[in-house]
Amino acid sequence: MGVPEEPRKPEEQRLGPVLRRREQIQPGTTDQRLLDTEGDSEWVHTDPWRVMRIQSEFVEGFGALAELPSAISVFGSARTKPDSPEYEAGVRIGRALVEAGFAVITGGGPGAMEAANKGAREAKGVSVGLGIELPFEQGLNPHVDIGVNFRYFFVRKTMFVKYAQGFVVLPGGLGTLDELFEALTLVQTRKVTRFPIVLFGTEYWKGLVDWLRDSVVAGGKASEHDLLLFHVTDDVDEAVSLVTKEVGR
Predict the structure, then answer these.
(1) What is the CB neighbour count within 10 angstroms for residue 196?
(2) Which residues contact 222 (CB under 8 A, 6 or more apart)?
(3) Which residues of the chain have pLDDT under 70?
């Protein structure tokens, strides 16, 4: 009986939609790697596996938030002190949004986010927190009634936009600025139907607005019309009125 020939290495390999040739061909098959009881566990940290985690985060987020009533996302600093005027403004905004018929969505953390959630809960509305996995994260604040924690910022951002009819932006740091400019970009490029963006705190936002007008627009990097994508106010009632008016309430 002859000795079986060594299988020849194929010149090309098809792994689902992926085509590999020459030195990029991998030994074995996908099924073989799946069914093997021994092997390297590093595969759970590979990019294809991360795609499944990303998908699961979208599914969980969509499932948890699909039945929300009309909502407004409120952004602001996690460092806002509970005894500060900004915190009190956040509580009043959360309460007023509920009284206007909205659920309130925040990042679920402390500070300004906690304030808006607190106001929403005190007004017996729907108080939502979308948390994020961070090395220094303190967890969801106690005023959140529906909470979802995310690994990935971009999944969380999708939830902020998809389930909100507008944004109220309290004074905040880099994370707040990131969320603000994400919203402005989506509206400016018409990736989303126009919705209101209200900056609360004229003194705090004055420098940013001046820079946008005097440097960005004046330098031809944006149009004068782009300054109409947001409103600035110090008045809680006006902030809620602007949101209500633009979403047809």
Answers:
(1) 21
(2) 188, 212, 216
(3) 1-11, 14-17, 28-41, 43, 136-138, 246-249
